[in-house]
Design brief:
5 strands, 431 residues, DNA Cyclobutane Dipyrimidine Photolyase, subunit A, domain 3, Rossmann fold, alpha/beta, single chain, 6% strand, 3 domains, binds flavin-adenine dinucleotide, five-stranded parallel sheet, Serine Threonine Protein Phosphatase 5, Tetratricopeptide repeat
């Protein structure tokens, strides 16, 4: 059997179901496509992937290729659409089985269906849900339609009746004959139509992409500095790498699995300390699962103006307002500081994200989807479910039972009492 792993948002070798399944074959190969569609313009006039996440992805794929090579598994990398490349590859290499992570949102479905339509029916596609903490087969709901609207209900039930699967054993090194010739190369930023750039020294996310770097972050945040033991107290911070785990970007492209993080927390609790703070990291991972289940339940509604509630608000769309929000020139210094941060680094804290989203949709009353699309373009850690789910939540068209709006002045007094964060970003910048 010749098996192919079609890597998408599961860019790791540890705890990877598709890779493990593929390794039962005689020949095993991997493929990754930098789909030009993801680097083109999106529906709201922003590039779908800006330079920050593009570079992080390049770093990730380089590391994946190296790590797979150590297992004698070649990774073929192309700057081309899956539809153009994968059927050809399947034909040339006599592939019988294709293993891939199961995705369900619009663009991902389209890409998969286009590939399937262009290969013989005898080629078997096996998809695995591999991005969850609680696997869909292990949650206490019979169908996705039963997923509740309110997070707390979901969390409590999963904590009581759900289970987190153990991580998979890493696959064994294959015979060197598995390593066929591979001249494919990982594209550069320039190949993707983007300019090179240097990292802003003020960034709270000074990390690079890749599975090894994700593991190093866990090592540092959990074991060396033991910051995990204070996570709940610091997680609303705004400055520097230490206030939260910063694992989101690696989780988003699958460089590390949620299960790996969960079991590492459990080990930390066993060896070092178990407290509210250690629990809270798991609590946040359940939020991540929740938004995935919300999108499984509601499908494309998460991209619609009325959201999953089908609410009808009078949304405005002003170009000038958009520009002033993006460039950090609104009337609110706290909003401006956060918007400058994302523009210069591709990163913004959770506190910042909630505030700028609320300001955009509740105060300025602008179409929330424009804000979400801007985040999609800029964020290092963009994840379709977390982004659109959180945007709906903060815009009154999603899962917030209290339907709250933030007062950014009061938020600044509380979370940036000395104004240090605002000073960091509002001093003379290059805009
Ligand atoms: P930590 O505080 O260390 O949390 C650990 C992990 O839990 C995170 O890495 C993340 O995977 C998960 N998590 C934490 N908070 C949330 C949350 N509210 N929703 C879902 N998962 C959560 N997160 C993304 O990963 N991708 C996005 O595209 C994204 N867009 C967002 C847009 C808006 C408007 C808002 C308000 C939040 C968004 N978030 C998104 C959630 C959250 O802000 C980030 O996950 C978090 O700031 C990442 O930092 P961290 O890894 O240090 O998180």
């Amino acid at each position: 059997m010749n098996n192919l792993i079609w890597f998408r948002n599961d860019l790791r070798i540890a705890d990877n179901s598709s890779l493990n399944k593929a390794c039962s074959g005689d020949k095993v190969m991997g493929i990754y496509c930098f789909d030009p569609l993801l680097f083109g313009m999106g529906d709201y006039g922003f590039r779908k992937t800006e330079r920050f996440r593009a570079r992080f992805l390049i770093e990730t794929v380089i590391q994946l290729k190296e790590n797979l090579k150590k297992l004698n598994i070649p990774l073929f990398v192309y700057l081309d659409s899956p539809k153009n490349r994968i059927p050809k590859f399947i034909h040339e290499h006599g592939i019988q089985n294709v293993f891939l992570q199961k995705e369900w949102t619009r663009d991902e479905n389209k890409a998969r269906d286009a590939v399937i339509a262009h290969v013989p029916a005898s080629v078997n596609f096996e998809e695995s849900y591999d991005q969850f903490l609680f696997h869909p087969d292990d949650i206490p709901y019979d169908s996705f339609q039963q997923i509740p609207k309110v997070f707390t209900e979901f969390r409590k039930k999963c904590e009581t009746y759900g289970k987190v699967r153990p991580t998979l054993e890493s696959p064994k090194v294959r015979p060197s004959t598995n390593l066929v010739e591979n001249n494919s190369e990982v594209p550069s930023l320039k190949d993707l139509g983007l300019n090179n750039f240097s990292i802003d020294t003020r960034t709270a996310f000074p990390f690079q992409g890749g599975e090894t770097n994700a593991q190093e972050r866990v090592q540092d945040y959990f074991w060396e500095t033991q910051k995990l033991a204070f996570y709940k107290k610091t997680r609303n911070g705004l400055m520097g790498p230490g206030y939260s785990s910063k694992l989101s970007a690696w989780l988003a492209n699958g460089s590390i699995s949620a299960r790996t993080i969960y079991w590492e927390v459990k080990e930390f609790e066993r060896v070092v300390r178990k407290n509210q703070d250690t629990y809270w990291l798991i609590f946040e991972l359940i939020w991540r699962d929740f938004f995935k289940y919300v999108s499984l339940k509601h499908g494309n509604d998460i991209f619609h103006i009325g959201g999953i509630l089908n609410r009808k608000y009078k949304w405005k769309t002003s170009k000038r307002t958009t520009e002033s929000w993006i460039s950090g020139q609104t009337t609110e210094p706290f909003i401006n500081a956060n918007m400058k941060e994302i523009a210069h680094t591709g990163w913004m804290s959770n506190r910042g994200r909630q505030n700028v989203a609320s300001f955009w949709s509740r105060v300025l009353e602008q179409d929330w989807r424009i804000g979400a699309a801007y985040f999609e373009s800029m964020l290092l850690d963009y994840d379709v479910h977390s982004n659109w789910g959180n945007w709906m939540y903060n815009s009154g068209v999603g899962n917030d039972p209290r339907n709250r709006a933030f007062n950014s002045r009061r938020q600044a007094e509380r979370y940036d009492p000395n104004g240090k964060f605002q000073a960091l970003w509002l001093q003379e910048t290059l805009f």
